[in-house]
Amino acid sequence: MLQGNAIIGQSGGPTSVINASLVGIIQAAVECEGITSVLGMRYGIQGFLEENIIDLGAESADTLEQIKNTPSSALGSCRLKLQDHHLPKVLELLQKHHIHYLFLIGGNDTMDTIHRVEAYAKAHDYPLVGIGIAKTVDNDLFGTDHTPGFASAARYMALSIQQAGMLARDMQRVDQFVVFQCIGREAGWLVGATAAGKQLESDAPHLMCFPERPFDRTKFIADVKRCHQQYGFVFIVCGEGITHAGGSPVSASNTQDTFGNVEFGAMGGTSAAMALHRIISVEFGFRGEFQVTESLPMCAADRVVQLDLDEAYTCGQKAVEHAANGTTGVMVAMRRAEGSTYRCEYTTAPLSKVAVAAKPLPDEYINAEGNFVTDAFLDYLRPLVGEMPSYARLAGIPITH
């Protein structure tokens, strides 16, 4: 077993359970014989390059237990795209602080960072164990059944649409439509999750626009007309990254982040929901609204799923376990066990694949019309989001004259 210090970092947007993974790593690492001290990067790899490092082993047990249930990223985050010219400095700091264990909690770009740092260290004969811990509400990481953070964000979305849908139903004489936009970039997992609270056919949502399917304006208008005629109002959920058949964003955003990704929503100064709102308003003359939650599902501590919190914590502990056994270059992953009762087993996925591959919503989870999820998706989702509330509605018995 390697002897040396460990360092932990968090990158990208948070989830409501990301700190559970952090605490899982810390608590396991302080008990690991090969790890001398447990350090933390303030503001991810960017902070590390600035030598902004703290002693996580000095935190009290009470503080860590509270951090476990605290939203956002306790260490602070960043979106720095690691460049080749950064790598010598990274290696220099690893050597200076006797760091032989690197744990990063994040998404695809974070996994790419660990992969590159570990490969560079190996090429320079510096012993380094690099382990990734999955984090993203988008649920688009390769190699795992789902990502810690997705379940809580999915429940956030499902509750939001269930309640906003009731509002839209009762306000249909005022507003004839609602467009609700989900985060998730090119993945439609959260779009599909909004159906979890649907009980009747007339309940919201009625239509879904997935990033996995090209947006067809003519079909969209026909679907809106059909739903409005059938229900008296129409509730649409769209992914922020939906595109036209040619690949151009429906949001018409041209802004890019440091990784070359299109900025959607507020960051891009526009939104797909706004574009869909305009289409419906012009075509039908309806009054309606669009709703964009942006980062709220990533930090809502009041809607955390306990299963999600527990799995995030266990992923952190498993990362240290793998590191202690000499495993490196992997991300901790979850595999759903077969059977009618939900259970996940913990395994690993190679960083070399996670860093370059994404996991869109599979075809079998989207209906033939491309505008809603299938029962198979709801079967996949329900154990993750937990039981949804059931609200009453008036019987609506008319008086007799």
Helix content: 25-40%
Broad structural category: alpha/beta
Name of the level-1 CATH class of the largest domain: Alpha Beta
CATH architecture heading of the largest domain: 3-Layer(aba) Sandwich
Number of strands: 11
What does the average pLDDT come to?
94
List unreliable stretches of 5+ residues: none
Report the sheet-strand fraction: 15-25%
Q: Main beta sheet, described?
A: 7 strands, mixed
N- to C-terminal separation? Answer: 86 Å
Q: How would you summarize this macromolecular structure in one to three sentences?
A:
With 401 residues, this protein is an alpha/beta fold.
Question: Secondary-structure blueprint of this entry?
Answer:
Elements: E1 4-10, H1 18-29, E2 35-41, H2 44-49, E3 53-55, H3 61-67, H4 87-96, E4 99-106, H5 108-123, E5 129-134, H6 150-170, E6 177-182, H7 189-193, E7 207-209, H8 217-231, E8 234-239, H9 265-268, H10 272-284, E9 288-292, H11 306-324, E10 330-336, E11 344-350, H12 351-354, H13 375-385
Parallel strand pairs: 1-2, 1-4, 4-5, 5-10, 6-8, 6-9, 7-8
Antiparallel strand pairs: 2-3, 10-11
Which tags fit this structure?
401 residues; Rossmann fold; alpha/beta; elongated; 16% strand
Tell me about this structure.
- This protein is an alpha/beta fold.
- It folds into two domains: 4-148 and 302-354, Rossmann fold, CATH 3.40.50.450; 151-301 and 360-385, Rossmann fold.
- It has 13 helices and eleven strands.
- The chain has helices spanning 18-29, 44-49, 61-67, 87-96, 108-123, 150-170, 189-193, 217-231, 265-268, 272-284, 306-324, 351-354, 375-385; strands at residues 4-10, 35-41, 53-55, 99-106, 129-134, 177-182, 207-209, 234-239, 288-292, 330-336, 344-350.
- The longest helix has 21 residues, at 150-170.
